[in-house]
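Whether sequence alone determines local backbone shape is best considered at the level of individual chains. For completeness, the protein is quoted in full, as a sequence line and a line of structure tokens:
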Amino acid sequence: MSKAQQKAFKVDQQQLQAAKKIFSVQDTFNTELGEDQVLKDEGFKIQAFNNDFTYLQAHKAKFAATIKDKATLLDREVKAVALVKAATTGDPDQTKIDQARDAINAVGVKAFKDKYLPKLDDAIKNLPKDQQAEQAKKQAASGQSSSASTAQSQNSSQKAQPIASKVLWRFLHQPRSSRSAGGL
């Protein structure tokens, strides 16, 4: 092959490589993010996706810029799910719960929050009582919808009410003057 042919061949290989990466990234979006923009596979390994996206940022910057928001969303959701798993398995840990809640809120997709914030309730129930009140306040402030809280309190008349909800209810309905500085 002549030098011109070798150069053309190399460019063609690079174009083919970029096309494969574009296809891979688009396929990942279609496979892993549902219509509601919520991660479908909680066990999804994002490393290969990140490698492909990094390649596209270096070699196809304009295209990468058009999908950056979706790539960021996928990355945040994967990290949030991992933190939720860490917070809900093993011994209860207030720090893990806080990290998971922050990661869920960073995603910014209502359907994602609606799915994963309630999963933290179980972890909160296993915390010591003084930490449960603090977590209930944080959970309420983190964006759990009042309709979800209302539905939960309506269902609680038929079922045992979760401890976190009881603590939150007491906090919200107790006069401020009777709350102590160290908890409720």
